[in-house]
Amino acid sequence: MQYAMVIDLNRCVGCHACAVACRAEWGVPTEYHRSWLHRQGPAMTPNGMSYTYFPGLCNQCDNPVCVPVCEADPEEKVFTDPKTGKTVTMEVLATYKHPFTGAVLIDQDRCIGCEMCVEACPYGARYMDYTLDEPKADKCTFCMERVEHGEVPACVKTCLAGARIFGDLHDKKSEVYDLVHNKGGIRLTSPEVDIGPNVYYIGNPRDLHLLKETCTPHKMNAGRTSRRAMLTGLHRQGGNLLAGAGLFGAGLVDLTSSDGHNRRS
């Protein structure tokens, strides 16, 4: 199973109901967001003039770079397959990819607020909630709490235009599977950033071209060197890495994006 979402740009009217519903469902502070919508264009494309919208959220990637950088100590966790009831025990960090649903989640009780995952995400889909006494990372979870109770994500339910379709990408009978494999669904990937996002977009060629050109990340966020990586390097090289000026001085990456979403200035 891999839950995925398809967003139909032909249907999206830019009403922001998805972002509002997400904020209301999860009590997201006004200065942050799990889901967003930006206008793109007007701009000329090889297929003509385009003006469209970019509904964005966490991509629940196949190979999420936000996961291995987590600074929290690993702990064993039992996961249950929602379809078969099968269980598996895995050692995971405070953020992890669910082995059965494919959702990338954060254990808020274990998050230590190191910000490593926020800096690592090339899509800017995570944020640090500084309104909390102990700041924690947060992001879209495909509303897994709702899905576990047989409901669809809040953004899907509230979309009056029916622009969002949610389901199991591995189920060949699902609408999501049909749209991705038979209707030309695209993902926001580039040669530099291709970590298997599970949010797809469909629409006319000019709008898809504009979205691909303006909203695809073209570099991985370097972030800071993680404590775990530093200790591993020191162990392997007998402490020689201490001579590298960048070991402890790897400063923060530029957290300013063109649209400003989920970035600190």
Give a short overview:
The protein is of the alpha+beta class and 265 residues long.
General description of the model:
By secondary structure, the protein is α+β, with helices and mostly antiparallel strands. It has a single domain (3-249), classed as Alpha-Beta Plaits. Helix content is 22%, strand content 22%. It is built from 8 helices and 11 strands. A 3-stranded mixed sheet has the order 10-1-11, with helices on one face. A two-stranded antiparallel sheet has the order 2-3. The longest helix has 11 residues, at 205-215. It is globular. The two termini are 38 Å apart. Mean pLDDT is 88; it is low at 232-236 and 241-260.
Supply the key terms.
single chain, 265 residues, alpha+beta, Alpha-Beta Plaits, three-stranded mixed β-sheet, two-stranded antiparallel sheet, 8 helices, 11 strands, 22% strand, globular
What topology does this entry show?
Layout: E1 3-8, H1 17-26, E2 36-45, E3 48-56, E4 75-80, E5 87-92, E6 95-97, E7 104-106, H2 116-120, E8 127-129, E9 136-138, H3 144-147, H4 154-158, E10 164-168, H5 175-182, E11 199-202, H6 205-215, H7 227-237, H8 246-249
Parallel strand pairs: 1-11
Antiparallel strand pairs: 1-10, 2-3, 4-5, 6-7, 8-9
Structural class determined from secondary elements:
alpha+beta
The count of domains is 1
As a percent range, the share of strand residues is 15-25%
Q: What is the C-level CATH assignment? A: Alpha Beta
Helix proportion: 10-25%
| Total beta-strand segments | 11
What kind of sheet is the major sheet? 3 strands, mixed
Q: Give the overall average pLDDT.
A: 88
